[in-house]
Amino acid sequence: MTSRHNSHATKDKMTKADIIVGIQWGDEGKGRVVDLYAQNYDVVARFGGGDNAGHQIKVGDVEIALRIVPSGVLNPKVELFIGGGTVINPIGLLEELDRLAAIGVDISRVRISDRAHLVLPYHAAQDRANERARGTAAIGTTGRGIGPAYVDKVARTGITFGEFARRESLAEKIRQNLLHRAALLEGENLASEADIVGETLDAAQRLSPYVVDGVAYIHEQFVHDKRVLIEGAQGSLLDVGYGTYPYVTSSHTIAGGACIGLGIGPTAIGRVIGVVKAYCTRVGGGPFPSELHDERGERLRKAGGEFGTVTGRPRRCGWFDAVAGRYAVQLNGLSALAITKLDVLTGFERIGIVTDYRLRGQAAGFSAAGASDLEVVVEEVEGWSEPIGDARTMAALPQAARRYIARLEEKLATPVELVSVGRERNELVRLD
Ligand code: IMP
Ligand code: MG
Questions:
Q1: Is the same domain home to 52 and 32?
Q2: Does residue 93 fall inside a structural domain?
Q3: Closest ligand by atom to 247 CA
Q4: Which domain holds residue 295?
Q5: Residue 59's domain is classified under what CATH number?
Q6: Where would you tag: which of 162, 225, 277, 281 has the fewest CB atoms within 10 A of its CB?
Q7: Residue 127: its H or E element
Q8: Peptide bond into 246 cis (omega under 30)
Q9: 324 within 8 A of 277, measured Cβ to Cβ
Q10: Measured in angstroms, how far is the CA atom of residue 179 from the centroid of ligand 2?
């Protein structure tokens, strides 16, 4: 009986990993929130997605664009773990590592799970072919081959980083995969088989030192009481199961995806922080109920610099959507919110918040987001005109800005613990 008690106590005492996820359609500004929180952790871990993600962190004059390396990178002491739920273009990763090394970042802290899957040139070619075939129903993917790489994983024809150690079998699998999709890839601009095999084997050799037994690695961190911060990619409304399907990415972006993507159980999770932009954006096609098609949307795009970091595409812009927000709070079991880019709203006389959806006269939930006859209820609140970039406390914010934050907090029934008011690393208001 004593031993049973002991083991129970040990489990309860286990250090918990905290999660930071975006709760809209991506581009919420997770990178800088992770950058800040990472100061209190030993490891920052990515659990899903690939180089479709583009995190940007600004430090002084230097702007760092991250694709797959976790955003904890600027904290010199943290280890950076790329988990088994990710799909990685090895050549792209090498370029990213080279870029980081060139500005003095110690990249020896990077670890890649042996369970992560490779994204190869034929995946990107297939992504492009699929999009063309969809015609006007195109998803507007980033064209990086993310979807086809996840399809291969589920179809059991994917190639993992664990296979780097077996060069001959790795080469053979690439050849087989090319052979099996030859018809589909005909006419696509694709390198030769020999080049793809050669480049992949070279990349495998260079990346081998970073590859670890991913499950053993993460659990060792727990055994040694290391604090783990888990970083999401994309946003909850792009989740393959619960987002605006089929206009979604191909991975589980919600907090639950962290357990799958790292090989840990739900009991390992502590807090879940949802990053939410003070308004909404999305890139690519698909439902966006609070979208503004007028000059206010244009103004948000300009003021917020809302152009894709990966593809450069202009992002669609709109008001904060509290229906989508409440849905994402449920999907993720959020403990708290971090609001980003509040400064972008400065100068709007009135700011809209979508509070409810209505479908043919009835109240509707987020599942109705794609309906062509959906109507949204917009509440307009008073804006502010004074610049807020220097505010570091709630008290220093204009009253209307404080009221706006309180309204979002109330609408999502979740406490706000951080607000960003500018692009610099220190332009943050903490509410704790
Ligand atoms: P994919 O992930 O490239 O397959 O693209 C699927 C959808 O997700 C498209 O609408 C993309 O624009 C969107 N998407 C993928 N990654 C991101 C991201 O990091 N931020 C915003 N949207 C993204
Ligand atoms: Mg992004």
A1: yes
A2: yes
A3: 1
A4: 9-114+213-430
A5: 3.90.170.10
A6: 225
A7: helix 121-134
A8: yes
A9: no
A10: 34
* 89 C-alpha to ligand 2 centroid (Å): 17
Which of 165, 182, 210 lies at the terminal end of a domain, its last residue? 210
The alpha carbon of 309 and the centre of ligand 2 are apart by a number of angstroms equal to: 6
Nearest CA to ligand 1 atom 19: 53
For residue 168, give the CATH number of its domain.
1.10.300.10
85 and 168 share a domain?
A: no
Total domains in the chain come to 2
Report strand pairing: 280-282 vs 316-318.
antiparallel
pTM here is 0.95
Active site residue 8: no
CA 191 to chain centre: 30
Which has the closest alpha carbon to 148: 120, 170, 115, 173? 120
**Given the residues 18, 35, 55, 123, the one annotated as active site:** 55
Could you list the pLDDT tens digit for every one of the 432 residues in the chain?
444 444 444 555 567 899 999 999 999 999 989 999 999 999 999 999 999 988 877 777 777 889 999 999 989 999 999 999 999 999 999 999 999 999 889 999 999 999 999 999 999 999 999 999 999 999 999 999 999 999 999 999 999 999 999 999 999 999 999 999 999 898 888 999 999 999 999 999 999 999 999 999 999 999 999 999 999 999 999 999 999 999 999 999 999 999 999 999 999 999 999 999 999 999 999 999 999 999 999 999 999 999 987 788 999 999 999 999 999 999 999 999 999 999 999 999 999 999 999 999 999 999 999 999 999 999 999 999 999 999 999 999 999 999 999 999 999 999 999 999 998 888 999 986
Known catalytic residue at 55: yes
State how far the alpha carbon of 362 is from the alpha carbons of 136, 376, 380, in Å: 30, 11, 21
- Ligand closest to CA 55: 2
Same domain? For 405 and 295 the reply is yes
Whether residue 202 is found in the same domain as residue 153 = yes
What is the four-CA torsion angle of 343, 344, 350, 353, rounded to 10 degrees? -100
Neighbour count for residue 350 (Cβ, 10 Å):
10
